[in-house]
Amino acid sequence: MTTSDAQPTSDTQPVRPASRREKSLLTTVLSLVVVLAISILVGITLGPAPVPLPETVRYLAAAVTGGTIDAADASGYSIIWQVRTPRVLLAAVVGAGLSVVGVAIQATVRNALADPFILGVSSGASVGASAVVSFGLFAGLGVYALSTAALLGALGASALVYLAARGKSGLTPLRLVLTGVALAYGFQSLMSAIVFFAPFSDSARTVLFWLMGSLGSATWSGLPLAAATVVLATVLLLWNSRALDVLALGDETAAGLGMDATAVRKRLFLLTAIVTGCLVAVSGAVGFVGLVIPHLVRLLVGANHRRVLTIAPLIGAIFLVWVDLASRTLFAPRELPLGVITALIGVPVFIILLRRRGYLFGGR
Amino acid sequence: MSITLDGLSVHLAGAELVRDLHIETAEGEVLGLVGPNGSGKSTALRCVYRALQPSRGAVLLDGADISTLAQRASARHIAAVPQESSNDLDFSVAEIVALGRFPHHRGNQPLSTEERAVRDEAMRRADVVHLADRGVLSLSGGERQRVLLARAFAQQPRVLVLDEPTNHLDIHHQIRLLRQLRTDSTTVLIAMHDLNLAAATCDRLAVLANGTVPHIGTPTEVLTPELINEAFGVTPSIVRHPRTGIPQLHYDI
């Protein structure tokens, strides 16, 4: 064995410190926060009946500081503060939440095609929603009937997927995905049956609109729970971002690094089910955001989950604020479902990005 | 630290993959596991890095059953390079190596200055410093293998578990790695197919064959034509290395 003992030249190279990357992450976060604030303001100002920006700012200031406004401005104030502000904020919360959950679920099942709805959450919610729309289930809950039924449907579906996917060898990613997809078909057929036998003829239309996502029913009262859930989930995931990195390396490697992948996957599954359930309850099943924003963010900042989870909620929030604005202004006074616009904007943007940069997911 | 396989048995899906395996290592020893496909080398190693729970018996670390330790705690002492490793996300090489620090801290704080030094030293040892900013998905098989070795080094283990670590490595990096294993004070459990490299690297070899008690001893003791024939069903000619005297195997094709 006579290899040269000379040190390869690379041994003397200094390793680049990570601080430059940290600095650029902070800059990115700050600029995105500014963009989000501007987007929210634009979203509140514009609408089927645009309110001039100075007026909007005056109304908002009055509402926040408890100032007074003239009686003549009451209807404008009401549009801005009671209708648009909660709706735009909810768009930001739902966009942020779906993006964060998308990142978590893609790490949980180690699958590039996974989105928050892959584990049967949205189809389970749609069963609950269609029961309300078609047969007036939970009528006693009034305006909250739909969200309550959707939340229960989502959580019930998640529990079923979890129980069915559990096996002797733990909760493996492929079992989870296959079970989720299979049960989703079951829930969909159940929903179709409910709509088919519905006594009201426009049930199908209502359910379809709801399924594609809408923020039309946003109110101040629905906002805090959704916002708290999303913020809490984001903080929890960020705190455990390194565990998500390790999970991506596979269960075998995770074991060698001291992590029980199945236990982590169970906790992540519970977290994503709860957050997605809450989001579906307030906004329906807004597709595409949770699938594509995680990929988009990885294109920008790499795979490291700490960076991805820092950026993804901001980009998701900005994206959905604009999507919601488009949905209520393009064909005003009619509203388009959010899912139509997320796909119309998102698909081409995503494909262009995918082709331009050497984005690798799952090998060459 | 020393590692002991104490009567290890593994049943999986109705098959008995390992039966009553006893192997003791001394501190700092390089012990090689050799044997035909399916003889249970990887299965035994998987129990050591806790990807598998043994059905009977135990893995002892300095005499203490590792199943009594938290998984994270044992990973501070035992690092592994598994045979199969998949990853779909394009982490940079430096990020993957930094994950070797995972068992040593909690939370998502960036690495401390000392930990970055550990990471950089691990990258130097595995000769991947020049790849630090490259995405792992664009690396060659051998480069990827070296990144996994660097990650295991970054774990600062007292026991290193390597399953076919020379896979994909060119001869320069094979020799470089095996030399490091010989000179370091880390205890090494290594599964290998190349018997000649195993003989040159390991202090002792355990020859596993299906269903038999393994033969354990120095390369000179266990690399005999009879034993190799018993385990692998081939009869080699064995010569001594002209300088080191280590047995080397030659085969008639």
TrEMBL record, chain A:
It comes from the Bacteria. Keywords: Cell membrane, Membrane, Transmembrane, Transmembrane helix, Transport. Its main location: membrane. Belongs to the binding-protein-dependent transport system permease family. FecCD subfamily. One of its GO terms (biological process) is siderophore-iron import into cell. The keyword Zinc does not apply. The keyword Transport applies. The chain crosses the membrane at residues 25-46, 88-105, 144-164, 176-198, 218-239, 268-293, 305-323, 335-354. It is found in: Cell membrane. One of its GO terms (molecular function) is transmembrane transporter activity. Pfam families: FecCD (PF01032). This is Iron complex transport system permease protein. It comes from Actinopolyspora alba. GO terms for cellular component: plasma membrane. It is a multi-pass membrane protein.
From TrEMBL, chain B:
GO terms for molecular function: ATP binding; ATP hydrolysis activity. Pfam families: ABC_tran. PROSITE patterns: ABC_TRANSPORTER_1 (PS00211), ABC_TRANSPORTER_2 (PS50893). Gene3D superfamilies: P-loop containing nucleotide triphosphate hydrolases (3.40.50.300). CDD domains: ABC_Iron-Siderophores_B12_Hemin. InterPro entries: AAA+_ATPase (IPR003593), ABC_transporter-like_ATP-bd (IPR003439), ABC_transporter-like_CS (IPR017871), P-loop_NTPase (IPR027417). The lineage of its organism: Bacteria, Bacillati, Actinomycetota, Actinomycetes, Actinopolysporales. The keyword Nucleotide-binding applies. The keyword Transport applies. This is Iron complex transport system ATP-binding protein. SUPFAM superfamilies: P-loop containing nucleoside triphosphate hydrolases. Residues 3-235 form the ABC transporter domain. Keywords: ATP-binding, Nucleotide-binding, Transport.
